[in-house]
Amino acid sequence: VSGDKTYAILTGIGTCTDEHIVIADFYQGLPVKQIGNKAFYTCENILTIEIGGSVESIGARAFQRCTRLISIKVDTNNDAYKSIDGNLYSKDGKTFVQYAIGKTDAHFELPSTVTKIGSRAFLACTALTSVVLSEQLTAIETSAFLDCTALASIDIPNSVTSLGNNAFDGCTALHSVTIGNGVKK
């Protein structure tokens, strides 16, 4: 963990082999406010992560390629994030941040509160064959479904106006994509 004199940033866990990670509210007396870029990148042993109430931001690719990750839990006192069924969302429920890619479910339905799927939110999710997107969704960010090798089909609703680069790159089983008429970018 590194940080300035007012808060701590979790930057990584080194060669940790733990299966259950708890990110405490404080480290050496300082609130843990950030999880850095790639903090847990490729940590293949992790099954669960618990995020404390003090975390305000999570860097890019923080949990990516954690292939056994089945649950991300967030302290109910956290003002920036929440978890629903082990997946990570912004506190207001409008941004889908991270799917726990170690889950073995073949089907996932995005809650109707979600208006944006974050960059790489489903990256390397190899079990999902279908994802249902809601009519409230307006944006799918860059590489959102990158390397989802089992994803077979997806219908992008008319409400989506922005579809990020490489959104479905590496989806080798994808045989059907329906793009709604709202996509402008």
Strand and helix map with partners:
Blueprint: E1 2-3, E2 8-10, E3 20-23, E4 26-27, E5 30-35, E6 48-51, E7 57-58, E8 71-74, E9 81-84, E10 87-90, E11 95-98, E12 107-109, E13 116-117, E14 130-132, E15 139-140, E16 153-156, E17 162-163, E18 176-179
Parallel strand pairs: 2-5, 3-6, 5-7, 6-8, 11-13, 12-14, 13-15, 15-17, 16-18
Antiparallel strand pairs: 1-2, 4-5, 9-10, 10-11
Outline of this structure?
The protein has 185 residues and is mostly beta strands.
What fraction strand? 25-35%
| Main sheet: strand order | 9-10-11-13-15-17
Number of helices, where a helix is a run of at least 4 consecutive DSSP H or I residues: 0
What oligomeric state do these chains adopt?
single chain
Uncertain ranges = none
The assigned structural class equals: mainly beta
State the major sheet.
6 strands, mixed
Distance between the termini: 38 Å
User: Which value, in Å, is the CA radius of gyration?
Assistant: 17 Å
Mean pLDDT: 93
The helix/strand series, from N terminus to C terminus, equals EEEEEEEEEEEEEEEEEE
Query: Total strand count, please?
Result: 18
Give the overall shape, derived from the CA principal axes: globular
Portion in helices: under 10%
